[in-house]
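Protocol step 4 of 5: obtain the predicted structure for the target chain.
Materials: sequence only (see below). No template structures provided, no constraints applied. The aim of this step is simply to have a reference model before the mutagenesis design in step 5. Sequence pasted as it appears in the construct record:
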Amino acid sequence: MSNLTQRILTAVVAIPVIALICLVGGIYFFAFVALTSALALAEFYKLAQAKGAKPLIALGIVCGFFINLSFLHAKLQTFLTRIFEAQGIAIPFPSQAQLFLITIIVTIIVISLRELFRHDGPALFNLSSTLMGILSVSVFFGTFIGVRELFAPLDFPMLRYFPNESSFMDQEKIQQVYRWGGYTTISIFATIWISDSAAFHVGTLFGKHKLFPRVSPNKSWEGAIIGFVFALLTAVAAKYLVLEYLPLGSAIIIGIIVGVFGQLGDLIESLFKRDAGVKDSSNLIPGHGGVLDRFDSLLLVSPLVYLYLDFIVFS
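Step 4 output (structure tokens):
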């Protein structure tokens, strides 16, 4: 079976499943992203090992999970508050930013203390690779959970879109907003994948000017430009098809983020692989390589879209 056939078959199976998980959201979306994050982090550590580092793999993955969990803020707050209230205990719950900061601080302390008593190779090299993996993989994947959870009633600016104050209690409107979150994550995936596909096919057929030969000799400026254009067109199409809450200008900005930083994310992962001397981060996904290979563009796109939606569109 050819590599292209494997890629197509994998996509035919995976895309509907991922789309359904995005729509359902909640714990299912969290579990999908957390698992993807853990697998990608393990692949990152494998690349670091190829360069002689000895990252704290198990501890890094556990800490990465709790960082992912910190982006499930609203649901964690509701769940823990109910538990403590049932015991007659009132506790202050940290904000999203405070919870994330606490998790990062605890992660750095725990990993540093573990390395202190480890005595296995260069400590600075080991700590750097362990923490870089958590920051560039776990945190960035966690922001994708954050994007989905921005559409929970406690975080979404309901009154801006539904002026009636009773919208906070209107289950139909709450479900509509949460569907917007599902459509947003699907749209991000679709924009990335369409951009990547357009860049690959056009670059293969017509690419003459190398984009970044030191890192990825097969990528061309022609492919990158077409990838950018298709990212822009896909984001605008998504605004009119399923993202009615999103202003046109914001759809264009998200398209620009994907068109630019999605391709840069791909180049950064190619840099890591070339430095480690491997073609793919793993062979976990038939026809696509590893999890990092398939989701590398998302790693830079997700935090930028999360920050843009949270601090600008919904502020």
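Step 4 remarks: The mean pLDDT is 91. The chain is about 75% helix and 5% strand.
Proceed to step 5.
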